[in-house]
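Example 3.2
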Amino acid sequence: MRIRSAVLAAVLVVSLVGAAAAPAATQQAEGEAYSGTFVQFQTNTNAVADYAVDGSVVVESVTAQSASETDGGIGIGASSSTAIDGSGISSQNSAGARASVSFESGTDMEANDNQRGVITFTSTDGEQVVQANVSGNAQTEGDNRVVVTGDDGAQGTFILIGDGNVTTSEDGRVVAGVQEDSRLVYRQYNEERSEADETQERMIQNGTATAEAYVYGAAEAESDGDTATETESSTDDAEASGTSVVEYGQDTDVEIQERSRDRVNMTVERTESQGKVVIATVSESAVENAESLEVYVDGEAAAQADSYGEVQQATRNGDNSRYLVRQSSSAEAATDVVIGINQFSERQVSMQSADSTDGDSGTETEADSMDDSETETDAEDDGSSGDGAGFGVAAALVALAATLVAVRSRL
């Protein structure tokens, strides 16, 4: 009788494993949906569809294909009206505030769950063509930018970084030719973009700004009701509770080390010594008095600038780093802190509320909190924290093992 019970339990678990695995296979075949705090979209066999930022869809679909398989190749221009078929999607995954989609032709798409829904398309295998169907009117601004105004008034800008071009076809599509190791960037705004937004776009396009960091309130990030009063460390943990990092330069690495109600500490590292700009968008619900933030670089106070020009000048072998604080054009109350770092390699950057600034970059607190974070992560990483069907399989196998041990002990 006991042996029969064990066999029955085994059969039941095998059935559960099969049932849990089947939906995962179906999702892979039929496509999946991503839903973050700000960004939502769907994927099918060869396209990303209905890309929404704060519920507004400007980009209806995106496809990618090798330039060698198109008639126009990298030189596709406004005279072209032929839609590309698009290569298949080979893989997709998400972690923290980021979702990645890879096309078989050699285009990697990275969607960032932040207030501007920033997307980067990177060519990893020769020349690639990226095509977007949009919901409104698309207009070309030079060889490197296309601005789309959606039917609801929202705007989005496609920006080419590196070699290639981006333009509009005669039937209203946005078409970009992206050469290997170059990038196409998309930023979306809830309304008409401001002069400050245009300046930031130019800095991203010409390589002056190589990264963006977004910090928003824990409540906005749906972090199970937790507030942002406690220090949060490590980029992965922070992303889950309200941060997003976008890196435009392949030689730039930004990591948010610590955030609290009165400061945000991050490490900015570059392989080259030349200064660059980092753009930080800080929600007022995340940091108190965000509009009066002060910036410290390696513990020393950076000089406050009066214009974007002064910030950019600091990156050209300036005597010290400079920063500019401006109201953000994002939907919620937020502040843009534009930081011109005068030189690299690794710099510790701290944005602090004026009422609490003391020049302390929070390194000691960061180290302590990182140790605590790693200990907690190690304790929790027991292989049972899988996603979707994986979690159900692990739990079922554990239950089966326990049942067999119990039956054997009684025999």
